[in-house]
Amino acid sequence: MDTYVLDLAEQQGVLIINKPQALRDANEKFFTEAFPEFSPPCLISRNPKHIRTFAKKLKHVIIKPMDGMGGSSIFFTGKDDKNLNVIIETVTNEGTRTTMAQEFIPEISKGDKRILIVNGKPIPFALARIPSAEDFRGNLAKGGTGVGVPLSDDDYKICEVVGPKLKEMGIVFAGIDVIGKYLTEVNVTSPTCIRELDSLYDLNIAG
Predict the structure, then answer these.
(1) Are the C-beta atoms of 39 and 182 separated by less than 8 Å?
(2) How distant, in Å, are the alpha carbons of 73, 106, 107 from that of 62?
(3) For residue 170, which of 24, 19, 21, 23 has the smallest C-alpha distance?
(4) Helix H segments across the chain?
(5) Which of 31, 104, 165, 199 has the maximal Cβ count within 10 Å?
């Protein structure tokens, strides 16, 4: 509802960052499918049977709700996990909630990189959120450690495609998540890590 209020404000000349229509169009997890060349193998469904079939084909998968944030309700499982069925039942809420099943990316051990994109261009440093010894999730809210790293060649390849599309849609500020060579999320509502990168590299990203 808030985005419709912002639409009216925008029509009256108020600068809105990001464009309200773009916030409705770019679901932060689903929007990765607009860039299939960078998306890891995944399935988006609310059908437990389909998700189970997908998971049974892979040694390890991540299952997560489409509307979650901060690492909440993300499960690490796979074809040999006897908890697989109950995980699927829980996350899909017995087949009523759309869910993403995604092949587990081992490079998460080197960090889930948050790359900030401003007006279509990436900040040249990322914050790699590295999981703790007790967890597979790199989210800072779940005990991950943030380490500053320069963007890699693979990071720039992703940004060269994603950045112009975001700018075209009116998304001035976004934070994309990259694990290894894969794009895993496009955060457009409340991207974090400005303060950490400003502190590490003496930047002024907000400015």
Answers:
(1) yes
(2) 10, 11, 14
(3) 19
(4) 2-11, 20-25, 48-56, 84-91, 153-169, 194-201
(5) 31
The answer to whether residue 129 is catalytic is: yes
Q: Which of 19, 64, 139, 155 is catalytic?
A: 64
* Strands ordered across the beta sheet of 42-45: 42-45, 99-103, 61-65, 75-77
Residues 15-29: tens digit of each pLDDT: 999 999 999 999 888
- CA dist 200 and 169 (Å) reads 30
Q: pLDDT class for 142, splitting at 50, 70, 90?
A: low
Global pTM exceeds 0.85: yes
Residue 54: which residues within 8 A CB-CB, separation 6 or more?
A: 43, 61, 101
What is the SS3 assignment for 40-100? CCEEEECCHHHHHHHHHCCCCEEEEECCCCCCCCCEEECCCCCCHHHHHHHHCCCCCCCEE
- Annotated active-site residue 185? The verdict is yes
Per-residue tokens: 138:
């790199």
| Whether 187 is catalytic | yes
Is 177 annotated in the active site? yes
Burial of 163 (0-12, 13-18, 19+ CB in 10 A): buried
**What are the structure tokens assigned to 2, written together?**
């808030």
Return the SS3 of 159: helix
Which of 18, 19, 103, 137 is catalytic? The answer is 137
